[in-house]
Amino acid sequence: MSWLELEDKTVLVVGVANKKSVGFHVGARLKEQGARVAWVVHTEARRDELRPRLSDDDIYVCDVERPEEIEALRESLANDHPKLDGLVHSIAFANYSDGPKPFHETTKEDFLQAVDVSAFSLVQLSNALKELLAADASVVTISISTTRMASENYGYMAPVKAALDSSIVFLAKSFSVFSRVRFNAVQAGLLKTSSSAGIPGYLESYLYAEKATLRGKGLATREVADTVLFLLSPRSSGTNAKGLVVDAGMDVNYFDRDIVERVTRIDPQ
Question: Which residue segments constitute the domains of the chain, with CATH numbers given?
Fold first, then answer.
């Protein structure tokens, strides 16, 4: 048995878009550890696209904005996987179709949809699947490294992720009444994913973040996935209601000498 002790565990990974997704990397790493993985995607078309990469694994379709589809997912899982040792929530959505806007111009419709998909979906899924979760199951969601920085291009998604982070605490508390199910978040720095590419100005933000890490190298999706595996494993049994920041030290390095010199350098006329 490996150190993580994930062999023969069954983990549901919700929110897989393509091979660059955090969820995809998490599932792939879980299978390397001998775990069984069940996948949840947004649409039938996405399931068809991913089928060749996911071999014979069970792939379910669920639009978390539709309560009836969450209920149908629960019923399908009850038949196929009546005991879940882990749940990975890797879903986020924001409407950036109109480009970046000042935060005060955020529409109510966009904000509430982002909260529904990116944060409240975890509450809904946890409630729907509570009877399928093992007594000591681990639930892990993907958040962001900080919600206290006003990144203008990221916009209203930071307050949405703050709601997700807070939900972790309250879910852990409410589940503690009847189980030992743990809830934690991996608060990841900037990553090269397809969904991130849809954020206005993301490339420039990523390049800056890469320079700001202590190692001068950007965060790899695999590194985030490995942190998720740790939180899913019995090795993290004492960790609950927490957010684990994975950003390669970016948050302590904003005043790196080289970055400061680049910004303040006066070019000769």
Answer: 10-264 (3.40.50.720)
